């Protein structure tokens, strides 16, 4: 432990705050031509209402989107936190040199055409300029950064294709741009909030080690989600990962867990993914939460973003559908948890409140005709019972009594108590509308017993790791 | 084999066709009072445009929803195929006797209050009346039947809560009403077509053995989906299951696979679920496709409903996102399939067609800027290559080139060739709109690599079973 602390002291990190949450930005390659990436980027800044200064840099025009433009970043008088570079690859080293001379605090290079197409020499030039000026670079060949709080948005994606998410506590670190844009789009639809989104591409200078380290101390970030295909600095990664994991949950989805997948990953990002078993062991050792697919990744992020940690595995299940209660019970035990056994006092009270047909045992099937009153009594019982650690509420909104009052009752108990509470609801537009209302208030809704149980199990596992 | 055939001959089955696809229906308990189930049911028949004769039976009113009503089914002159009974449990035996005397061909008892609440004696009365008149009864305590083709619809569910699905090839057999209504709602949203939906409740007379046997010979039914918690007639079930499974795929989701889940199942439907291992072994033996959750169940149904069977496991993957290709490759190998190795000729042709940056190997990453032309070339190659058994097409609609023309190209190749072709697309409203277009034409779209690979693997497994 002592040795590790020593090691950690020796790790040096760039100051990434000016890149991620900049006040003043230069856009090199900003353009009035709507077919240019530099046009999409400056329009994004204008549309999200970026409040700092924007300096378009363009060789031929002195006015870009009605903002005064400069021929070179060296012509700009004011302080610049971030330079976004969106020009052809060949021109990048020269403008990077200028960025260094202009004392820019950091750069995002969205341009592609570097190591990913075999142009290693050109990428090496970037690395040496970064070192020369001690200037952090994200990219090249990346989407860059979206930070809804500072309204930093280097993404060059058409907004009609990808909805922008709301502000929240989940940060995403994604090497691949395509995966990144898909994730962004998915989380916008799922309606949970984004802290920082960083697609870091070739990771020539700033890599996942630096970014994880940054997010560990970022107060807005409650949960970190990481998609990786390989890690270059293994030792440093483990060191930083341990530190981060004791502070906040890190969910990791790794591409290339089979031999064929690893080969495909090498062809994709030139990542040497190494042995899957070694990775899995390393992730477990540092307390990372391993997701096996996009579904898992977003399901887990949702529970960690909204629910308190809990080490107990005694789960209360309330349901208005018998079969769904059976499937959820299966899922609970298959994920190494157990049904709670209600205390005698709580049972006696419920016996008086519930219709005689209701069996006072777990899973608590409160009947296909259950209304908000019955949900309230059941929720009151389980939230106050010391024998219950977490709660799964199943509401099949297809049944007669399940309506917006039931949703309100779930929200009331899901937000006022510290016990983790999650919901299972499956169905069409009526269900989806209620799901949106419940999730809006910070109570996660899952569309299958398996997804709910897996997520709750991940929460408990991490809570235990953190408590060790 | 010889002995089994003998056995099968000895199994007797009710003629269920008049219940499932009736021409003329009596509704006992039909009512003008909108709070009565008998009102919802007759309104449903009117709203779906049932074309046969409807005979409302009501003790006090001679006009129900502007249709002539009768005091007793014995007063009806015409032939009656199906009587739907929606009155209080106590009154059911008497009207059932009348149904028998009136030579009704079958009955659906939606009323509850029988064995499921311990009223076993009352349920026994139903069974003896059914035997006396050799009259099949579905229920009691069930939602009953939805057959969009004959417009039979005994379901008493409000339409604003549950959308009605379109006509298609998938039939659902569900004991539980709540699970049934949830499934109905889900498949309406998913947009794949329904053949028959049967929720059979307490299974006092007609059970899953009878219904499976019926669906085996139902021409409209291409795929059978079964949710069960337990089986009472094990031997007969196995016999019928074997016969069905050689004719068409049966997907089974079983509730109560853990000890606790089994206990919950007993409390729910009084099903003695028995050993999970024994069930799983039995299901495998008869070639059933085992689903582990709702997701699985619907994912599998979708591929079996739309794609040709194929025993080969050499999968071609076309993708416009590298990371998604990596994850899909992992999922293929984790589900015991392999990447196809393209033939030399096809590779050479692709090399000429694709940009130099595209690596001509599986997974075939055709680039983040891939448009319909590039998809067409790639699809043409893999559909015509004898080294390819099935195709997974990944389209991240977030990328610039992916649009409705790409969707049209996928549909073209997904519908004109016999090789199974499925799509992976994840994302928000733009993606969802394209997903709907593609699925409308009969090409299944999955929202994760895992779901796609699991479904394709299930298809191959079943194809091999059938070929044995």
Output the CATH homologous superfamily of the largest domain in chain A. Answer: Succinyl-CoA synthetase domains
Report the top-level CATH class of the largest domain in chain A: Alpha Beta
Q: What would you say the CATH architecture of the largest domain in chain A is?
A: 3-Layer(aba) Sandwich
Q: The CATH topology of the largest domain in chain A, please?
A: Rossmann fold
Number of strands of chain A: 20
Assembly type of the chains comes to homodimer
DSSP summary: helix tally of chain A: 17
- From the N-terminal CA to the C-terminal CA of chain A, the straight-line distance is 14 Å
* Residue share in β-strands of chain A: 15-25%
Strand order of the largest sheet of chain A: 9-8-11-10-12-13-14
Shape verdict of chain A: elongated
Structural class computed from helices and strand pairing of chain A: alpha/beta
Q: What is the number of independent domains of chain A?
A: 3
Helix content of chain A: 40-55%
Mean pLDDT of chain A: 92
Q: Largest contact between protein chains?
A: A-B, 79 and 79 residues
Largest sheet of chain A: 7 strands, mixed
Radius of gyration of chain A: 25 Å
Low-confidence stretches of chain A at least 5 residues in length (pLDDT < 50)?
1-8
